[in-house]
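Quick check before the chapter quiz. The format below is the same one you will see on the exam, so make sure you can read both the input and the output lines.
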Amino acid sequence: MSPFNLTETSSFHTIEITVLSCEDLRINGRSVKKNTCVVVRTDPLNFRETTTDTEGGSYPSWDQKLTLDMSIRETCITLEVHCRTLSVDRIIGSARMPVSDFMGGYFPEGYLSFLSYRLKDPKGFENGIINVSVRLRAPEYLARKKKVILPEDKCSTSRPALALPAMDGKNYDGFDWYSCSKY
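Here is the expected output.
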């Protein structure tokens, strides 16, 4: 096993982005007929793509979940709407989704955020809206962490046993408090 495992480092987050739909898509002022898809990028080399919607026209829908790893240094995720024909793959709109819209501050890990963004065409003009939902997944090493079952209180038989994560010198979220120091 490799000593460096990306799933167990704190420098990456796994996010689930569900691409729901788009509204009022146009190419050169005319309604889009068919063959649209969405590409979600966290960086130039890390991206996922939805299937092609062939029937939605200017109001396509996908309801497709995409899972990506994202560096903790990323500040934006790019959403690109493409229109495909036999010979051309054209970006008809893109939006930048700030990471602060769904992570950090008031949002607990695992919180599902529903977000909508205005799309801009390559010339910078407004071109529709994209609707997505985003969830920051708990790291796999925390989800796999074994549970410790504490025995019931001897005086009471009506309470169920309480299950807590194994501590191993760390708190429930895996952060090692003993190695932390302010100075």
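If your answer matched, good. Residues 1-9, 146-183 have pLDDT under 50 and may be disordered.
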